[in-house]
Amino acid sequence: MRKRLMSVSKLPPMLSISHENGTLEIKLKPNPKAKRLILRLDTRTGQPVATIPPGLSLARIESFLGDQVDWLLSRTEQRPSAVPFVAGAEIPVRDIAHKLVHVGQSRGTVRQLIEGESHSLLISGEENHMPRRVTDWLKKQARSDLQIAVDHHADALSVKPAAIRIKDTTSRWGSCSSNRILSFSWRIIFAPPSVLDYLAAHEVAHLREMNHSSRFWALVEETCPHFEEARVWLKEEGRYLHRFGSE
Questions:
Q1: What is the predicted pLDDT for the residue at 247?
Q2: Does residue 240 carry a pLDDT above 90?
Q3: Does residue 5 surpass a pLDDT of 70?
Q4: Which CATH superfamily is domain 130-243 in?
Q5: Where are the alpha helices (DSSP H) in 90-129?
Q6: What is the pLDDT of residue 136?
Q7: What is the pLDDT of residues 159-208, one digit of tens each?
Q8: Which pairs from 138-142 meet CB under 8 Å and 24+ separation?
């Protein structure tokens, strides 16, 4: 009998795959432009997500996902737990651990406190507003640091971006559009300052070279000699930065 094919628009939103210790819930993400079936963990939530190209039977999808159970369990076990922005949580700011401390219900503010080697963020206002207040504060810190870094590298290369935008992307840390707008993920504020500096240098260099040619990398190295080390750090550690602020 010929296997029934399903269009990507008619797939169920989730598939449950049973294993000896329970069940894995896998989100199906149809993509008519996809060339092959791809399985990954969502960088923020850890949810397994399967990108589905058109023309696959549901049986083929279930078979593929069933074969990946061991890989999924291994990756799930290795993935660090999410760290929500709540009282008592510890998050990195410029790669330095900061404890989140709720300090009452007065006017909502976030204040950085450094006592010796101990770093804290003191968050006032109602406690249920902590996640938003911490996120807003981190975005401001990221914008400030990125503005300074971008200005430095832009001056060195004699270029000028049209604008800087702060976003919360998962697929890329930065981008440079054809209209010279530089966009960055605010989560880079969790990383070491040298990594943020490299990211700024990378996107500024695109204002001269909209490619990744040898000329482009020469420009990056010209203003950011440590770029290789920072580039490796972001490739290996960057995905873990999405766990901060997740529920």
A1: 62
A2: no
A3: no
A4: Metalloproteases ("zincins"), catalytic domain (3.30.2010.10)
A5: none
A6: 96
A7: 999 999 999 987 799 999 999 999 999 999 999 999 999 999 999 999 99
A8: 138/93, 138/186, 138/187, 138/189, 139/166, 139/186, 141/93, 141/189, 142/166, 142/184, 142/186, 142/187, 142/188, 142/189, 142/196
- Let me know if 164 is exposed, middle or buried by CB neighbors in 10 A (0-12, 13-18, 19+): middle
Query: Which residue spans of the chain are classified as CATH 3.30.2010.10?
Result: 130-243
pLDDT band at 3 (very low <50, low <70, confident <90, very high): very low
- CA 77, 82, 88, 91 torsion-angle sign: positive
Residue 157: half-sphere exposure toward Cβ, Cα within 13 Å? 29
CA neighbours closer than 13 Å in the CB half-sphere of residue 108? 13
Residues in a beta bridge with 110: 123
Q: Pairing relation of β-strands 38-41 and 22-30? A: unpaired
How far apart CA 247 and CA 244 sit, in angstroms, is 9
Instruction: Give the type of residue at 239.
Output: R
Check: CB of residue 161 under 8 Å from CB of residue 182: yes
* Three-state secondary structure call for residue 115: strand
When pLDDT is cut at 50, 70 and 90, the band that residue 2 belongs to is very low
| pLDDT tens digits, one per residue of 88-124 | 999 999 999 999 999 987 788 999 999 999 999 999 9
- Taking the CB of residue 201, how many other CB atoms lie within 10 A of it? 26
**Nearest by Cα to 237 from 43, 20, 103, 15:** 43
For residue 145, give both structure tokens: 């640091």
